[in-house]
Specification:
The chain is of the alpha/beta class. It is 31% helix and 25% strand. It contains 13 helices and 28 strands. It starts with a helix and ends with a strand.
Amino acid sequence: MNAVLKAITTHAAVNSDSIALEGDSVRLSYAALHDEVAVLATRFERLGCRSVGLLLDNGPAWVVCDLAAQAAAVTLVPIPGFFSSDQARHTLRDAGVEFIVAEQPAQIASYAPEAIFCPLGCIAGQNTWLARFPEAVPRDDLPSIAKLTYTSGTTGTPKGVCLTQPVMERVAVELCDAIDVTPQDRHLCLLPLAVLLENIAGVYTSLLAGARCIVPGLAQVGALGAAQLDARRMLAAISTHQASSVILLPQMLHALVSLIEGGLPRPTSLRFIAVGGAPVSRRLLERAQVLGLPVFEGYGLSECASVVAVNTPHAQRLGSVGKVLPHVRIQFTDEGEILFAGNLYSGYLHDKDQHEAWYGSGDLGYLDADGYLHLTGRKKNIFITSFGRNVAPEWVEKELTFSPHIAQAVVFGEARPYNVAVIVPRPEHDPSVLARVAAAIAQANSALPDYARVSSWIVADEPLSVDNQQVTATGRPRRGAVWAAYGERINQLYEHNGDTTERRPHVVL
């Protein structure tokens, strides 16, 4: 029996009435959770499932399906709700999924018309359906793979990351120790459970410790669609549920900080706010600290089963992503790329036997004298200006988004004498926003060397989102897609200003 299931069995025996999962309208004690998992696992076994897709909103039913798949030794393939129909179709076919659990047949009938549906019954208070794919070609190379997590990354085509249960649990166990999770904790899930970070760092750590994991539907916590956030609803959910811990993306933290700075009450129940998934502005972290918010930046990769480094109440350094957890080893190439070993994925779905002992993260960084890991950019994103200077765009973008007036920024400058940014202002409809953005860019430039400064900028037509495929689910820009949308206008900027370093800042609307 794996560690999470063993912990649930122990908690069910010792503290049977303690609440394990709380959803919109149902609470499951540890004893009830244990029984729900056993019943569904038996159903999976009788069906002869080898791989099961999961397309449910956040809720106790999602967690029960995940745990039942583990108990039945079934490979689980979560389908993120923010995937497009094409991405979902690719995922199902690529993984050879035989069955999929969904709330309604209509969720998948549009992109899988061959599916045969039957009621699966009530799981943790939620009515569900099971779809069978008669033409699926099950894969024979997944018997040891507990979870096949698909990450769209920066290309838009999902890639299957193969993870074993021990690899995932090792991360959860060490996070429990690092952040001192206790049975009294109340973790509120704000990210989709199909995202590995919430699945492992949120759910598994809570269940291992005997804590309460609160899993409302995403709309109930302010997640509206693929890229919209009702920050007031999110803050209300944190207060209503008296959450002791949450996991946020940087844009969610910015919204939370802005609301509290604007006069809304700070949730006093929070003791640990993890933030990650994309680069985090140091100034944003400082603003959070001033408000008394216990924010701790971390860093992880799907290929390492999520978190590899995190700041904690015992060891924190702003500007770093914390100290590396004991389950991984770290080294650096001559270029500064971060390599990991020790607790890795089992390869990508189609090249499981070709991954190296040391995984190249693609991220650049360094360890400081005290062992804190600092990120400086992405290896593949570095561009070289026409003056021969290397620029990591993430560095410049973090400086730009320090400002409360800039929501998003993507910087370009390959083979050019100066850099240009695509800017999404905040707020979008403020008539004075352009002047504020200009001032914010000037302030950012004052902290940058001349070769990294932004001299011209474009106002984006709309926010960069998952819907328009210009960012990943965790907020990282898809630079190719941004360039496809704005490259012509960027080239016009260079033509307008000319190839000279003596120019006035210029903006194109």
